[in-house]
From TrEMBL:
It comes from Neorhizobium galegae bv. officinalis. Part of an enzyme complex containing four subunits: a flavoprotein, an iron-sulfur protein, plus two membrane-anchoring proteins, SdhC and SdhD. Keywords: Electron transport, Heme, Iron, Membrane, Metal-binding, Transmembrane, Transmembrane helix, Transport, Tricarboxylic acid cycle. The lineage of its organism: Bacteria, Pseudomonadati, Pseudomonadota, Alphaproteobacteria, Hyphomicrobiales. This is Succinate dehydrogenase hydrophobic membrane anchor subunit. NCBIfam families: succ_dehyd_anc. Pathway: Carbohydrate metabolism; tricarboxylic acid cycle.
Amino acid sequence: MDMRTPLGKVRGLGSAKSGTEHFWRVRTTAVALVPLLLFYIVFLIAYGGRPYAEVVGALANPFVATINGLTVIASIIHMRLGMEEIIQDYIHSEITKIVLLILNAFFSLAVGGLCLFAVLKIAFAG
């Protein structure tokens, strides 16, 4: 017994098309963020209240800068995927949905670029 509508059968749409890949990307970025954010929390606790120059010096460490860069990248990808899911689920007008998905992509790219620029500027200036 097939539960799809006749139109769904003709279009070939249904579960397990692109939704599974999206599901795994969101879960993978979430799992990647756990150790990255734990490192970030420990770093913030260790350097909280320290002088500005000392914190910038610690952020300029190649290991810390790499962790910061990876955190930015994983966070931005996770944010973009999450907003994509919200837009696709709750926006019903196709034109509005397309515009919002494009804006989401550009916003994520802009925020990610600015954050990575800040990480690199601190890493190479410190």
